[in-house]
Amino acid sequence: MENPISAAEERQPSHLLNVPSVSQSPRNDGEQGTNGKAMGFVLVHAGAGYHSESKAKEYKHVCKRACQRAVEKLKAGAMAVEAVTAALVELEDSPFTNAGMGSNLNLSGEIECDAGIMDGKSLHFGAVGALSGIKNPVLVANRLLQEAQKGKLSAGRIPPCFLVGKGAYHWAVHHGIPPCPSDKMATKFSLSAYKRNKRKMELAEKVESEYKQTKKRRQSSENGGLMDPPPQQDNDSGCLDTVGAIVVDREGNVAAAVSSGGLAMKHPGRVGQAAHYGCGCWAENAWNPALNPYSTAVSTSGCGEHLIRTVLARECSTAVQSEDAHQALLETMQNKFISSPFLASEDCVLGGVIVLRCCRCVESQPAQDIQALLVEFLWSHTTESMCVGYMSAQDGKAKTHISRLPPGAVAGQSLAIEGGVCRLGSLVG
């Protein structure tokens, strides 16, 4: 990314990425301008965790493809929800991400996926948790959202917005989403990681068991005393790479989505932040200029338990309603995540967010008012790295960036934040 903003730098407007505006003819029907230029913007992430230099090209490539798929939808006239779903399907299909194909295996050696999606226009939300046997869990989450928008079921029943396990699987198949055997969703990368993590876990359990037995013997002896604690296992933040995307369409509607295979070696049935309301994603169109003048969208990644206990997606959305989005996000990540009282017992708080906010801006021109959609986008993480990609419907190709903590920073205790702005075309009001 060109001239990114870091947390250690003083924010200057000149550091922001500016995309030139493109004039369009007046339209009142929501279609593209007569010059063929489309409106819309997408920001994606391939997770907050650890992205090795050896696989940097693959991570960036999948982010580019996800952006391109979303922009293709936007150019074809699709709304934000459809575009964000297309981006997530591309991210889920990559063997390099922990979502859909190639997801982490749980303790039983099985794949269970979580996904969530939110439409900023209707404020409807759909999610699935601990779902096995479906290649693209985001499609199920999106279908739940769509069905909820249709209204009540027969006999006045309320349609579900969140389904888990076998119930989610059967509902998905009943609604035309094809099943995929779980063994077909595992890749050589996820299988090798499972075997490696299983060996590490067994070794750790053996060390802890021996430590406890030795401690008991010493405490029962006359010369019993304090012992050194057992060696701590490294936190494999590479297992936290949940994927997500946020989109604004030509009408200024926003949508957000997130998908994850969950923590490596998780307990069967565990559901992470991706499926929890307000924790994995958030999208909300501006509805009251006095209370929320900006449309906002957020997608998170990291340790699900940390993100759930802080409801981070919604917290970030509320925070960036303030005048200075960069400063607001910085303070939220520091005060309501790293230093959150809900995580006081944690010495390593792992998470990341991508955030988008947009508003209509009017610039006076001779004999006419020019109205454009101004988008500000940011990402922040406490993990070692985070891979992002972004693209407007006016761009020829997507831009990608692997954001890393500053040298000397400690993962889980330090913060990185970057971003930019984009002016989406110009419309004569």
UniProtKB/TrEMBL annotation:
<feature type="region of interest" description="Disordered">
    <location>
        <begin position="1"/>
        <end position="36"/>
    </location>
</feature>
<feature type="compositionally biased region" description="Basic and acidic residues">
    <location>
        <begin position="204"/>
        <end position="213"/>
    </location>
</feature>
<dbReference type="InterPro" id="IPR029055">
    <property type="entry name" value="Ntn_hydrolases_N"/>
</dbReference>
<dbReference type="GO" id="GO:0006508">
    <property type="term" value="P:proteolysis"/>
</dbReference>
<protein>
    <recommendedName>
        <fullName>Threonine aspartase 1</fullName>
    </recommendedName>
</protein>
<feature type="site" description="Cleavage; by autolysis">
    <location>
        <begin position="241"/>
        <end position="242"/>
    </location>
</feature>
<dbReference type="GO" id="GO:0005829">
    <property type="term" value="C:cytosol"/>
</dbReference>
<dbReference type="GO" id="GO:0051604">
    <property type="term" value="P:protein maturation"/>
</dbReference>
<feature type="active site" description="Nucleophile">
    <location>
        <position position="242"/>
    </location>
</feature>
<feature type="compositionally biased region" description="Polar residues">
    <location>
        <begin position="20"/>
        <end position="35"/>
    </location>
</feature>
<dbReference type="Pfam" id="PF01112">
    <property type="entry name" value="Asparaginase_2"/>
</dbReference>
<feature type="region of interest" description="Disordered">
    <location>
        <begin position="204"/>
        <end position="239"/>
    </location>
</feature>
<keyword id="KW-0865">Zymogen</keyword>
<dbReference type="GO" id="GO:0004298">
    <property type="term" value="F:threonine-type endopeptidase activity"/>
</dbReference>
<keyword id="KW-0378">Hydrolase</keyword>
<dbReference type="InterPro" id="IPR037464">
    <property type="entry name" value="Taspase1"/>
</dbReference>
<keyword id="KW-0645">Protease</keyword>
<dbReference type="InterPro" id="IPR000246">
    <property type="entry name" value="Peptidase_T2"/>
</dbReference>
<comment type="subunit">
    <text>Intramolecular proteolysis generates 2 subunits, alpha and beta, which reassemble through a non-covalent association to form the fully active enzyme.</text>
</comment>
<comment type="similarity">
    <text>Belongs to the Ntn-hydrolase family.</text>
</comment>
